[in-house]
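Support request, please re-run this one:
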Amino acid sequence: MLPETVIKTSRLAFATPGRGSSWTLAPALTNSCILVSLFPAAATIASDERDLCEQAVSGSRSALGQLLERHGPRLYRSLLLPRLGNADVAEEALGFTYTKVVEHIAKFRWQEVGFYPWLRTVAMRVAIDLLRSRKREVLFSPADLENELNDSTIAEHTPDEWQECDLAAARRRVAELLTQLHPRYADAIRYRVLEGRSREQTAEALGVTAATFDVVLHRALVALRKLINSTNLDVS
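Re-run finished. Output below.
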């Protein structure tokens, strides 16, 4: 068993933005209208990470728990939540990922980019399986994730670089969908979500009051949700 603090700490991190972050909205509503940081502060590979990895490979659950506690929030925010589009499903995927890591940690081999890229690959495979098994309102199809996984080379990117790649992919997907929305709705989501403007700044840019903007944003997200649903009807 992994230390209970892994799950508790991860859930706390999911609910609050990191220092230097700005909140954005994952495109969905009801049980999936989620605040997620698409612009988190950078983090570097800790000096003790190689030692922790060696201990984990040798069977130390404490060391493995520290690694998952360190990287779980990043994995959730930048990869699982944007691609699965639902907090409950993303947490389920994180749990499955942890289980897979425990089962296969002995296969891990250290590279200078650290533990996260290997963890990310495990999580990508879990996310693909979940997308195949359930029809959901999601930004990405299983094929999208498979293409990403096939194009990914663990040794090429650091954790920070992977984080930015993953979040940039989510932002690009939202931007593509916005071209199919009413321009007013698209602007509301673009200013507030992609550019990270405040509620008041976005309302001013749209020429409405903050209260009216709240209504516009709500309707915009409803429209985006319907669009995502219609573009994923054939996902299996």
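Strands lie at 23-26, 34-37. Residues 37 and 183 are 24 Å apart (CA to CA).
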